[in-house]
Amino acid sequence: MTRIIKAAAISAAGLIGLTVFLLLPTGDQISETDTFAAPGLEPMTVKEARADFWRLTPALLLVVYEAFAETGEDAIYDTLASVTHGGALEYLYLERVGAMAGGGLDEADQTIHEIKLLTTNVAQEGAVLAIDASWQVIGTVGHAEHLHVRGNTYSADLTVAPVEGAWRITDFTLREVNRDAAGETFLAPQTN
Question: What is the pTM of this model?
Answer without folding.
Answer: 0.74
